[in-house]
Amino acid sequence: MSERKKAAELTELSLLFDISTKLSETLDLKTALKPILRMTAGYMEIPRGTLTILNRKRGEIVIEEAYGLRPEEQAKGKYHIGEGITGKVIDTGKPIVVPRISEEPLFLDRTGSRRHLDKRDIAFICVPIKIGSETIGALSADRPSEEKGTLDADIRLLTIIASTISQAVRLRQLAQEEMEKVLQENQRLQDQLKDRYRPETIVGNSKIMNTVYTLLETVAKTNTTVLILGESGVGKERVAHAVHYGSARAEKPFVAINCAALPESLIESELFGHEKGAFTGATLARKGRFELADRGTIFLDEIGELPLATQTKLLRVIQEKEFERIGGNRTIKSDVRIIAATNRDLETSIGEGKFREDLYYRLNVFPILVPPLRERRTDIMLLADHFVQKYAREHGKKIESISTSATDKLMNYHWPGNVRELENCIERAVILCTDGNIRSALLPPNLQAVDAARSDSSGSFKGMMAGMEKELLSEELKRARGNMAKAARALGLTERIIRLRVAKYGLDPGKYK
User: Fold this and answer.
1) In a shared domain, residues 166 and 20
2) What is the pLDDT of residues 77-113, one digit of tens each?
3) 337 and 398 share a domain?
4) How many domains does the chain have?
5) Which of 14, 448, 478, 489 would you label with 408, given CA atoms 20 to 30 Å apart?
6) Exposure pattern of 87-106 as b/e (b: 16+ CB <10 Å)?
7) pLDDT for 154-164, tens place per residue?
8) Where would I find the H helices in 273-327?
9) Co-location of 382 and 300 in the same domain
10) Which of 42-46, 195-199, 412-416 has the highest mean pLDDT?
11) Same domain assignment for residues 447 and 354
C-alpha cells in the first residue's frame, strides 16, 4: 500500500473518529451537525459543502447547514423533490457525481456561490442521508475536478458520514416540523382571537367596514385615547369593546357609562366617586367608574352630553391622570384608557359653547367614524342572518330562511335607527314567525310602507293580497328551482294558473334555477 493511500485512510479514520466523538459528547444531536460539517470540510479540504433536509409536509428541500457559503447564499438553496442534483438524489435515494458542473444541465447553482468561478474546474458530489429506506436529506461537497477514482473515494467517505449522522439529521428534521406546527398553531390562535373580537362583536365585511377594522387593529395595540363617531345605533359600544379586548388591557375591567343617562347632579359622583357625607344621601364612601376601571378601559358613551363642569374635571384626569372623590382631599392616580363616543357634531357644540375645545382635542387623538347602515348595504343581510340566529336560539324557534320579498324590503329600507333598528326588526319577526320562514308580512309597518309608497294600489286590501300572492309564488319557485310544474303541485294549482300568475307578477322562473 502506498504512503499516500495510507495517509488518506488515516485521515478518513481520524475524521470518522472525531465525528463519532462529537456525536457522543451531546444528547442534543441536532446541535452537532454544524461542527461536523465544518470538520468534514476541513479534513476533505473542500471549499463548499451543504447539508440539506427534506420538509416532508411541503416537499421542500432546504440547506440546513453550510460551509463556504454566505448566509444570503445559503438562504437561496431551496429545491423541490426531483429538482436539480440535490432534488434528484433525495428523490432516488442514490448518490450522484458530477465531474464538471459546467457540463451538467441539471446542476442549478441555486445559491449562486460559484457564479464568478470557472465551473470547468469544479466537481460536485451529492449523497443521500437515509433512515432505513427513507431519504431524509443529502450531504454534498464541491471538489476540484480530478480523476474519477478520487471522486469515487469521496462518495464512499461522504456516504459513511451520511450514515453516521442520519439520526442527528432526523432529529433536526423532526424539530423543524414541530416548529412549523407550533408556528401554524400560533397563527391559528391569533386568527381565532381576531375572529373573537371582530366578527362576533361587529358583523360585516363591506369595504367601508374593513377600513374600520384596520383602524381598530392599529389603535388597539396602543394606550391612545379613542373617539368613536357615528349616528345612534351604529354600534359604537361594539367598536369600543373591540378596541379594549384587542389590547394589552383585555384582561382588565371594561367599564361603560352613558353620560346622557344620568342627571347632572349624579354624573360627577358616578365618574369619580364620593366620600361618606360628601352630600345628602352619601351615607357610605363609594368608588367611581374611573377607580373601578383601574388598569383597564373606561367607555364614555354620549360624551357630548357631559355637563361643562364635569368636562373640566375630566380634562384634568386626561392631562394629569389623577382626580379626587367628591368630598375628599386624597389624590387618586388614574391608569385608565379612555374611549369616548358621540353621535353629536362636537365642533358645532364647541361653537355653541356646550363643549370645551381643549377637551375635544384631548379626546380626538384617534377618531374612528362608524358608518351608518345605509352606507354599508352589503352588510344588511349578514346582520339580519346574525340576528335571526341569535333570537331563534333565545326564543327557541327554528328559522330556516328569510323570504325574497322580506329580503327586498330589508335591503330597500333606509334604516334611520341603523343596526339597533335592524336588530329590533328581526327580533320582532322571529317572535311572530310560525313556519320557519320570515316573510315580509312579519316585518314592522314602517318597512311595509316602503313598498306601499311605490305601489299603485297603496294601502288597499287588494294590493296587500297581491303582494302576499307574489311572495308565495316567488318562494315556491325558489324551492322548486324554477320548475313551475313542481311549484304548481306544491301550491295546489294547475300549471296553466301558475303560468298566468307568474306572467301577471313579472316573475322569471329562470332566475331560481
Assistant:
1) yes
2) 889 999 999 999 999 999 999 888 888 888 888 888 8
3) no
4) 3
5) 489
6) bbbbbeeebbbbbebeebee
7) 888 888 888 88
8) 289-292, 308-320
9) no
10) 412-416
11) no
Rounded CA-CA distance 86/77 in Å is 10
Which amino acid makes up residue 219?
V
Domain that holds residue 414: 374-512
Distance, in Å, from the CA atom of 381 to the CA atom of 256, rounded to the nearest integer, reads 29
Q: pLDDT confidence of 16, banded at 50, 70, 90?
A: confident
Cα separation, 369 vs 372, whole angstroms: 9
Query: Coil, helix or strand for 65?
Result: strand
| pTM, to two decimals | 0.54
Task: Count Cα neighbours of 284 within 13 Å in the Cβ-side half-sphere.
Answer: 3
Give the Cα separation of 78 and 65 in Å (integer): 12
Phi, psi of 82 (to 5 degrees): 90, -5
**Bridge partners, residue 125, by sequence:** 97, 141
End-of-domain residue from the set 155, 176, 197: 176
Determine, yes or no, domain membership for 93.
Answer: yes
Q: How far apart are CA 414 and CA 372, in angstroms?
A: 10
Is residue 366 domain-shared with residue 381, that is, in the same domain?
Answer: no
Task: State residue 230's pLDDT score.
Answer: 94
Residue for grid cell 301577471: 504
Q: Rounded mean pLDDT of 27-47? A: 78
Hey, is 300 helix, strand or coil?
Answer: strand
Q: Which three cell numbers stand for residue 245?
A: 379586548
Q: Which residues contact 510 (CB under 8 A, 6 or more apart)?
A: 482
The predicted structure's pLDDT at residue 223: 93
Q: Which of 382, 362, 360, 363 is nearest to 373 (CA)?
A: 382
Decide if 306 contacts 266 (C-beta within 8 A): no
- Closest alpha carbon to 301 in 241, 217, 386, 349: 241
Q: Is residue 188 part of a domain?
A: no
* 354 and 380 co-located in one domain: no
Phi-psi region of 54 (alpha: psi -120 to 50; beta: other; left: phi over 0): beta
Instruction: Examine residue 186 and state whether it is found in any structural domain, yes or no.
Output: no
Number of other residues whose CB lies within 10 A of the CB of residue 450: 16
State the amino acid at position 95 in one-letter form: P
Q: Which of 324, 354, 371 is the last residue of a domain?
A: 371
